[in-house]
Design brief:
six-stranded mixed β-sheet, 5 domains, Rossmann fold, alpha/beta, globular, 606 residues
């Protein structure tokens, strides 16, 4: 028996003074639908959802909603003005007798309903908005990025709630794991057209690629036919002018059809340059801890990060992930212990608050007035990893058009702000990249490109994220903050961590096996390493190696600085050749010394 439509859209057209976002769009949402709404940032997903929620009026078209059907909408930035507490906001639309629904949702989301709304974090606001929507229990839920700012525990709870709900829902999300768990069908908004795939989200990318391949074949065939007809028109029309006017008109129609084809937008040109290679040891943290009053964030922790590692830090909101991250890069001092950074580090930071972006500046100014990438703001050029680029051309690499170059940052969507911040970071060399919640607001295609750029990056990455799929694809090591200051290091990403935790739960003694289960060049967690396992000669050598490593690093830095001047290769070629040989020799010695130091340290730790 066919299900009755909950929502029906016919002939929808909507524009913002320029090219329309949609034109003649048709869409049907039925009872029980669990739909993922996907598409590029800026394709109009949020706008379409606002049209469904009757918050935005279309230029043309019809929207039919059966009488009595309730639609609930979770927007990305709900307005908390006029509400003293998060509980006041969450219960505002409910009868007092139904307030228990909010309390039940708040318990599952670990939300304090008495918290002041004006001081709430992004995660607390998102939880309050979700508690309100779930308590209202509408027949159709429209969820715009529901997992943004949520920790993994809250995401898992929300997944379970949506998996058992009888309501239909449409969800916009970048979280592949979330969509794979929930979506039974996918709506793909692409160049103003909505296509529907009635298969699980896990099959979306293959389906999308098939459609793109079909488009490419059709475009190629049409181009070939136009070329053949155009040749005929030049060579044969004069002989039979009257008889072939229809064929000439058909050639014009073919050209109009080809012109009407909207070309696929290319992907953002994401590229990272690690620059000069630093030493093998990037970060050495010994006995670091941090507390706020009686609350222990990190108990004494030893952690070693080596060149090329991708270290993910995970844990609940408020566990101290960003605090640990800041301690590891030297931005925040630990209460106890010390952090030693390798020499020659060039740091680039992607912060979750996007604090590096001034909302009042234009995109142009955000790139050309950045001293970190060698831009003064007095020209239309920006230095991109040592090469001058026109600012508009560089912005186009990140999918911004020329009209946006002079627009203020405040006008950008969340995904566009993330791309602009990536443009700033990728304009300069770095060999230590810090990514604090980089996946928020990015579309699936840009996430793919970011993952590919990180895979090709020769530097080291420190990462904080709640995106389980992203963690699995990127991380080689996961540091889990598990409460009470306890931090545990696991090999691999999120799924690897879960498997290892399962093994530990089954056999607590297996904890001692974790370091041996990891790859050789992975930082290990050691507690109270002693030198008892070393001979006298080895202990003496271990004590001497740090000074030797520091000396080699200093020599390498001087040689690299000398060779960085292009003129030296023409003015003093013999010196340049000798310095290059010396640099290679020192680098080999440094690698050997660091390898020896690591071996002795591990032997000393037992």
């Amino acid at each position: 028996m066919a299900r009755a439509p909950l929502l029906q859209i016919s002939g929808l057209s909507l524009g913002h003074g320029g090219d329309p976002l949609f034109d003649g769009l048709d869409l049907v949402v039925q009872q029980g639908d669990r739909l993922a709404l996907v598409g590029r940032n800026g394709s109009g997903k949020s706008t379409l959802m606002k049209v469904m929620a009757a918050l935005v009026e279309a230029d043309a078209g019809e929207i039919v909603l059966p009488e009595g059907t309730r639609v609930g909408y979770l927007e990305q930035d709900p307005d908390f003005a006029g509400f003293a507490t998060l509980g006041d906001f969450a219960t505002a639309s409910l009868d007092p007798a139904e307030a228990w629904r909010v309390e039940a949702a708040a318990e599952g989301l670990d939300l304090d309903l008495s918290a002041r709304a004006d001081r709430a974090s992004g995660g607390e606001r998102r939880r309050a908005a979700l508690a309100r929507l779930l308590a209202e229990a509408p027949e159709l839920m429209l969820l715009d990025e529901p997992t943004n700012h949520l920790d993994i525990a809250a995401i898992a709870w929300l997944e379970a709630e949506l998996a058992q709900t009888r309501a239909a829902f449409i969800v916009i999300s970048h979280d592949r794991a979330f969509l794979r768990r929930l979506a039974r069908a996918t709506l793909w908004l692409d160049r103003g057209v909505v296509r529907r795939m009635d298969r699980p989200f896990a099959e979306f990318e293959d389906w999308r690629d098939e459609i793109w391949a079909q488009e490419d074949v059709a475009r190629h065939k049409l181009d070939r036919k136009i070329k053949e007809e155009a040749r005929w028109a030049v060579e044969g029309i004069s002989a039979r002018r009257k008889r072939n006017q229809g064929r000439v008109r058909e050639l014009g129609n073919l050209r109009e059809t080809r012109a009407a084809m909207i070309a696929r937008e290319g992907g953002a040109a994401l590229s990272l340059d690690a620059g000069p290679k630093g030493g093998k040891r990037v970060i050495e943290a010994r006995g670091i801890s941090r507390s706020f009053g009686d609350r222990v964030i990190v108990a004494p922790l030893d952690l070693r990060v080596l060149r090329g590692d991708r270290v993910a830090i995970v844990g609940p909101n408020g566990a101290g992930k960003t605090t640990l991250l800041n301690m590891l890069i030297g931005a925040e001092a630990p209460d106890t212990g010390e952090v030693t950074l390798g020499t020659g580090l060039e740091l680039a930071v992607f912060d979750q608050s996007r604090a590096a972006l001034d909302p009042s500046r234009t995109l142009w100014e955000s790139l050309t007035e950045d001293p970190e990438i060698g831009a003064s703001g007095r020209s239309d050029q920006v230095m991109v990893r040592g090469t001058p680029r026109h600012v508009v051309g560089y912005l186009k690499d990140f999918l911004f058009d020329e009209a946006q170059a002079r627009a203020p940052v405040r006008s950008l969507s969340g995904g566009e702000k993330a791309r602009l911040l990536l443009a700033r970071i990728m304009a300069r060399q770095s060999n230590l990249l810090v990514l604090d919640e980089p996946t928020n607001d990015l579309d699936v295609e840009t996430l793919d490109l970011l993952q590919e750029a990180l895979a090709a990056y020769d530097g080291t990455v420190l990462l904080v994220s709640h995106d389980r799929d992203f963690l699995d694809r990127v991380a080689t090591v996961t540091v889990a903050l598990e409460g009470g200051g306890r931090a545990t290091v696991y090999a691999g990403g999120w799924s690897d961590m879960q498997a290892q935790k399962g093994a530990l739960d089954a056999s607590p003694d297996a904890a001692a096996e974790l370091p041996r289960a990891r790859k050789p060049a992975v930082p290990a967690k050691a507690q109270g390493a002693s030198k008892a396992g070393l001979s006298f000669t080895e202990s003496h050598r271990l004590a001497a190696l740090p000074d030797e490593i520091a000396r080699l690093e200093a020599e390498i830095a001087k040689l690299a600085e000398f060779l960085s001047d292009p003129a030296v290769y023409t003015s003093a070629p013999a010196k340049a050749e000798k310095a290059s040989a010396a640099l290679a020799e020192r680098q080999a010695k440094l690698d050997a010394a660091e390898e020896e130091w690591l071996t002795l340290e591990e032997k000393a730790a037992g």
